[in-house]
């Protein structure tokens, strides 16, 4: 083994979901070769041509963001981040793997959708990536294709109880896909909102002249998220399938998940930083500024936040992803002036997640190890990547972040790297910042300078959900 492919990370506090230990990390050929307690003979024996000094820093696994939408078409426009800009921004924020969503078009095949997303991503990513499959047209051929996709490492399938006429699946279609997943080992991911009922409330609000962004939150009621969550859980139970509910935002929906888990059902939940740190106060910002915060599920009144934090502490919620789907305020969000239902749904966040969750450690919401669990290890396990991603252990990919827990930063669109003209967290002070990022041993961020390249990131096939094995 030539020393040219060896790196040692010395003197940091290695934090994983399981442990905190002062250790040196030896990297060989893009993988973690060994760990040894700092200052011991074993650690002193590590030799390499590249030594990274992690004194005073955390050494953590690269983040796994299991819910992003790069270049996603929505409402006649596209998410503003490409796979190139979005994965570069992710790296700046300490995330080294994303799992994005390929989309089946109505009338089209899963294969055609997956091929289209491979074409967008291949050769353009700064970090590694995988795909989930959005299933928007359930029929016999689709169900057969699900089996094939599981075989090639696309092991999760997203369905929508929302967006009638676009992605919506009815209960019969959902049940059939869940039955197939029960057989092939796939995991159904659910956007749980009663879209049929919401559309009625949207039309009624617009007819009353209620057109401002804040009404987006008022018509997408928490009870309709809870109702859909309950229905998805029971359909999965009937099918004998596991279920993963995406972007959980409401206390009532958390209660449905907690009840199902107390019954021993294989039901999992994800929330996102926007629901933990933002609220309907943002949606109500004047002069159409609230449009910046339009996403679905919507932001809730701030009293919902405590239930989400509690769910993360008690493991009724397992994962924090971003649902990164940025649209510029100028020219994209503005399409909904005078009609909140035309505002593209989505927020930028892939660059902010690790920092915001570290702030949650500082604020006492979660422990350091829980930070790594919900941001790195649990998403890797949920989507069949753990062992390679989400931890620092011999044999794992050397996706490593040197994190400065004492640095101060102010979040701003002026300094972020996402391809969008605003920040959802503008002006927010955060303690902690990424210093250096390795992806498979290669420096992508080096002491706050971008040293990566598009095309370094590779497609990463996934095994089935590791909570069920």
Describe the structure.
- It is a single chain.
- The chain is an alpha/beta fold.
- 31% of the residues lie in helices and 23% in strands.
- The chain contains 14 helices and 19 strands.
- Strands 1, 2, 3, 4, 5, 16, 17, 18 and 19 form a nine-stranded mixed β-sheet that branches. The chain has an eight-stranded parallel β-sheet with strand order 6-9-10-11-12-13-14-15.
- Helix 4 (140-151) runs parallel beside helix 5, helix 5 packs across helix 8 (222-239) and helix 8 (222-239) runs parallel beside helix 9.
- It is globular and about 70 Å long.
- The model has no long low-confidence stretch (mean pLDDT 97).
Short summary:
The protein is an alpha/beta fold and 469 residues long. The protein has helices at 41-44, 83-92, 110-121, 140-151, 171-184, 195-207, 214-219, 222-239, 251-262, 273-277, 280-283, 305-314, 353-362, 368-382; strands spanning 6-15, 20-28, 31-37, 50-53, 58-61, 63-68, 73-74, 77-78, 95-103, 128-134, 156-160, 187-191, 243-245, 267-271, 319-320, 400-410, 429-439, 442-446, 449-450.
